[in-house]
Specification:
Rossmann fold; 8-stranded parallel sheet; binds nicotinamide-adenine-dinucleotide; ODC_Mu_crystall; Ornithine cyclodeaminase
Length: 372
C-alpha cells in the first residue's frame, strides 16, 4: 500500500545479492527524503518506511575553530597506507569551467572524492577557485564545501562550508606523514620556501611530529610575517633566509609550497641527507623542483598516477630522464613498512593531494563536529 495517492507508480528492479530478481513498487516521491513503499520479496509483502534527516551544515568559523591539523595526521596516515594497498576508491577529478560572461565567471570548479574501504563515511569535495571578479565584489576568489556521506546508507550526513580550510589541513597532515618517515627524530632545521596558507599548515604539521626544530623561511612575499607568526604560535625559533640558496644551506628538511611558476632549489645547494617535501605543484603547469634534483633523489610520490601528470614527476618524464619505474615508493608504502630514510640520501616527497586525504579529513571532521 502506498502512502501518497498523488504519486506516480512504477516498478523497479531491486538489487539483491548477485541477482536482479526482486521487484518492488516505489513512488516518485522516493527521490525526496521520505517515502513508504511495499516490496514483494519471494511472495512476502514487507512494509518499509525510509527517511533521512537533513544533512548538518557546519559553517566556516565552526570548522576553523574546531579542526586542527594534528587531528588529521593519524587518519591521513592510515588513508595513505590503504591507498598504497589499493583499498581507496579515488576517481579522477571532475572539472567544470565557468566561462566569463555578463552573468558568470570566470572561474573553475573542481570536484573530487574518495572512499577508504571500511570507513564509516566517504567524501565528495567541491572547490571553486579563480573567481577573480569576486575581488571587485569584496569576496574571496575561492570557496568550497565537503559533503560527508554515510557509507552504510549513502545518505549525506554533513555539508562543511570549509572554503579550503579542510584541504589545507589534509595537505599539512600529508606533510607530517612525509616528515615522520623521511627525517631524523631530532635536530631538524626545517626550511619553508613559499610562506602562504599551505606553509602555515606544514609548519604546524611538522611541529606535531617533530616538536623541536629550527624554522627558516623564504618567500617572494610574507616571509617575515610567516616567521613571526609561526614562532609565536609554535614556540619555536624561526629566522628569515636571504635567498632560497641560503635557506638550503641551513636546512636538512625543505618544504616547498610556492605557486610553482619557477623551480625554487638547485642540486648543488642541497646538503647531504636533505628531505624535500614539495606540495606546490598540483597542476600540469607547475614545477618547483628541477628535473636533475628529482633524478638524483629517492623519489616518493603521494600517488604516482597523479604526480606523473600534475606533480613534480611530470617534468622529468616529459624530459625523458625518468619513468614511473624510477619511483622509489608511494608514501603509503612507507606507512606499510618500506624503509623511508636509510642514510644521507637525498629524498623528494611529491605531494599533489589525493582523494584519500579528502576522505580521511571528512571522517575526522564528522567525528569532531558532530559531537560539539
Ligand atoms: N599538494 C596539495 O595537496 C595542495 C593543496 C592545496 C594547495 N596546493 C598548492 O600549493 C601552492 C601554495 O598554496 P598557498 O595557498 O599556500 O598559496 P599562497 O598564495 O598562500 O602562498 C604562496 C607563497 O609562495 C610564494 N612564492 C611564489 N613563488 C615563489 C618563488 N619562486 N620563490 C619563493 N616564494 C614564492 C608567494 O610569495 C606566497 O607567499 C599552490 O600552488 C597551490 O595550488 C597544493
Amino acid at each position: 500500500m502506498l502512502s501518497s495517492s498523488s504519486s506516480i507508480l512504477k516498478t523497479v528492479s531491486l538489487r539483491s545479492g548477485r541477482n536482479w530478481i526482486r521487484h518492488g513498487t516505489v513512488t516518485t516521491a522516493a527521490a525526496a527524503a521520505t517515502a513508504t513503499t511495499t516490496n514483494i520479496r519471494h511472495g512476502t509483502f514487507i512494509k518499509r518506511t525510509f527517511s533521512f534527516p537533513a544533512p548538518k551544515l557546519f559553517d566556516y568559523d565552526t570548522i576553523v575553530k574546531n579542526l586542527k591539523v594534528e587531528d588529521a595526521i593519524e587518519s591521513v596516515e592510515q588513508a595513505f597506507g590503504a591507498l598504497s594497498k589499493g583499498k581507496v576508491d579515488v576517481p579522477m577529478p571532475m572539472h567544470i569551467g565557468i566561462e566569463e560572461s555578463a552573468e558568470a565567471g570566470p572561474g573553475d570548479c573542481h570536484i573530487k572524492g574518495g572512499y577508504v574501504f571500511g570507513a564509516k563515511t566517504f567524501t565528495v569535495k567541491l572547490a571553486c577557485v579563480s573567481f577573480y571578479k569576486n575581488l571587485e565584489r569584496g569576496l574571496p576568489p575561492g570557496s568550497g564545501v565537503f559533503v560527508i556521506v554515510d557509507a552504510a546508507t549513502g545518505a549525506p550526513l554533513a555539508i562543511c562550508q570549509e572554503n579550503r580550510a579542510m584541504t589545507d589541513l589534509r595537505t599539512g597532515a600529508a606533510g607530517a606523514v612525509a616528515m615522520k618517515y623521511t627525517t631524523p627524530l631530532e635536530g631538524n632545521t626545517i626550511g619553508f620556501i613559499g610562506c602562504g596558507a599551505i606553509a602555515r599548515n606544514m609548519a604546524r604539521a611538522a611541529a606535531a611530529v617533530r616538536p623541536q626544530f629550527q624554522g627558516v623561511a623564504y618567500g617572494l612575499a610574507g616571509a617575515d610575517e610567516f616567521a613571526a607568526q609561526m614562532s609565536e604560535e609554535l614556540g619555536l625559533p624561526f629566522t628569515v633566509a636571504e635567498s632560497a640558496k641560503d635557506l638550503c644551506a641551513q636546512s636538512n628538511v625543505i618544504f616547498t609550497q610556492t605557486t610553482g611558476a619557477n623551480t625554487v632549489v638547485e642540486l648543488d645547494w642541497l646538503k647531504p641527507g636533505t628531505t624535500i617535501i614539495a606540495s606546490g605543484s598540483d597542476q600540469p603547469t607547475k614545477q618547483e623542483i628541477p628535473n636533475n634534483v628529482l633524478k638524483a633523489s629517492k623519489y616518493i610520490a603521494d600517488l604516482v598516477k597523479q604526480t606523473s601528470k600534475v606533480g613534480e614527476l611530470r617534468g622529468p618524464i616529459q624530459a625523458g630522464i625518468m619513468t614511473e619505474e624510477d619511483v622509489y615508493a608511494e608514501l603509503g608504502d612507507l606507512v606499510n613498512g618500506k624503509p623511508g630514510r636509510e642514510g644521507d640520501e637525498l629524498i623528494v616527497v611529491d605531494l599533489t593531494g589525493t582523494g584519500a586525504q579528502d576522505a580521511a579529513i571528512g571522517q575526522v571532521a564528522w567525528e569532531k563536529l558532530n559531537n560539539i
